[in-house]
Amino acid sequence: MPARTGRQFMNGLKEPREIWVGENRVSDIVDHPAFAGAAEALAGVFDLQHEYAADCLVPDPETGEAINVSHLIPRSKSDLQRRHAGLQRIAEYTVGVMGRSPDYMNVTYAGFAGRCDEWAAHGNEAGAENLVAYQKHLRRNDISLTHTIIHPTIDKGAGDRIRAGDDAPLHKVGETEHGIVVSGARILATLAPFADELAVYPAHPLPDDAGDYALAFCIPMTTPGLKFICRDSFSSPRNTRDFPISARFDEQDAFVIFDRVEVPRSRLHIDCNVAVYNQVMTTGWYPNIMQQTMIRAQTKLEFAWGLSTRMCEAINALQPPNAQMLGEIWTFAEIARACVATAEAEAYEFGNGVWFPAGGPLTALRASLPQWFPRVNEIIRLLGSHNLFAAPTEAQFSDPALRPLIDRYLRGAGDVSAEDRARIFRLAWDFAGSALASRGEQYERFYLTSGARNQQMAHRLAPRQRGDRLVDRFVKDEPPAAEPAASRMAEAV
Ligand SMILES: Cc1cc2nc3c(=O)[nH]c(=O)nc-3n(C[C@H](O)[C@H](O)[C@H](O)COP(=O)(O)OP(=O)(O)OC[C@H]3O[C@@H](n4cnc5c(N)ncnc54)[C@H](O)[C@@H]3O)c2cc1C
Predict the structure, then answer these.
(1) Number of folded domains that form the chain
(2) Using CA atoms, how far apart are residues 39 and 1, in angstroms rounded to an integer?
(3) What is the CATH number of the domain that holds 440?
(4) What's the first-to-final CA gap in the chain, in angstroms?
(5) Which residues pair with 277 in a beta bridge?
(6) Which of the listed residues 114, 382, 405, 490 has the most CB atoms within 10 Å of its CB?
(7) Which residues of the chain have pLDDT under 50?
(8) Within 13 A of 312's CA, how many CA atoms are on the CB side?
């Protein structure tokens, strides 16, 4: 099947699955008030690929059918640029608010399949073969995939490492004729209600004696025993004029319980193999997926700058302190753009003929964003002040008695009408102050692990040579010789 349409995506969500939100187990995702808006927005993502086919679609290398460019296994710098154009289309559609639109997992599995040589190490040839077959299934059926990779927190004081015998983290409990049986839990699975399938793959490394926890697989959301407990919905009523962001983009986050779930052998990518589990995420995964996440983040930052500027213009509030804060947001957006461009320009072959962006600039950016995004929200709230709460609804504008008074007392500066002003300030609050905005801030702090861990990793992965050489000139009297930038990037990954 070639790339799907929005309608085909919506039809897929009708399959029965165990999704809980608030007081209910939900039987109809597409029509439930917690999910309907985001389901429609995600259908828009599927339709978008046909509308902008030149950017978003490429031929499947074997069937020739049109598939989303996020499935492309990059084999050159120009493949990465090609992928950039498609990823940017999707990021612009959600203005970066949906972190886990399906392209996120598509890029992940294209990278895994491209480096199947790493998955085949340590005696895991069968798992690697299954993984390559799965990526074909994913791209040819244009599946919406969610993922869950973090073990639940029970006792943080016990440290990060799993101990053999822990019953809470997802682990293997048995074998059947056709596969294995797993039980336990993982946290979280963003996009779960809107996914066709669920992916499990490695995150934090495991000790040698924790083999039962060393699992990777993908299974349909409809698999018996899979239970998804969603957080409270932050989706607003489906009025995109009053709630332009939260009526559309609540992608949801779910806690995942595996209650004696059978995983078919053909869907197993790692079956209790600690050596391969601890190795496959350590080279190209991070720079590969960061191309998607950082194009999204850059788009969100540039949207935030555009929105804040319009907010200030609407009330003629561009005085120096405000202009300084606007410049602060633009600086974040421009540094993000420069990091992505540098990472793509310095891309190189990671092995097996696969090209990923250079990791250094993306690692630096990822480590900075948990500070930048909360600051962006703070700036929007400072710039907006009380005006964020003086933005009438569509219904209030429709009241014939109220309308002339609103037009008079809530107009903007110059020729900015009350309606234009209200739409800008409502958009700003929905983006930076609403319940969904607060969830978005939490997401930016924690996706792909916490800011604290990202900064530690930035230091750990940083190339030593140039820093050492600059210092050695003074402490060892060595001459200051130059070295090519490319070697720094290669060393950083
Ligand atoms: C909105 C949202 C959506 C998510 N979606 C998904 C998803 O789709 N799939 C998925 O698998 N996971 C998802 N996650 C989970 C996410 O991956 C984890 O929250 C993230 O990896 C952090 O988990 P952790 O326990 O390793 O946190 P940690 O890195 O341990 O951080 C927890 C706290 O400890 C602090 N900390 C950590 N290390 C140190 C240290 N050395 N010194 C001092 N303090 C430290 C951190 O600053 C933080 O305050 C999501 C999380 C959120 C919030």
Answers:
(1) 2
(2) 21
(3) 1.20.140.10
(4) 36
(5) none
(6) 114
(7) 486-487, 489-493
(8) 21
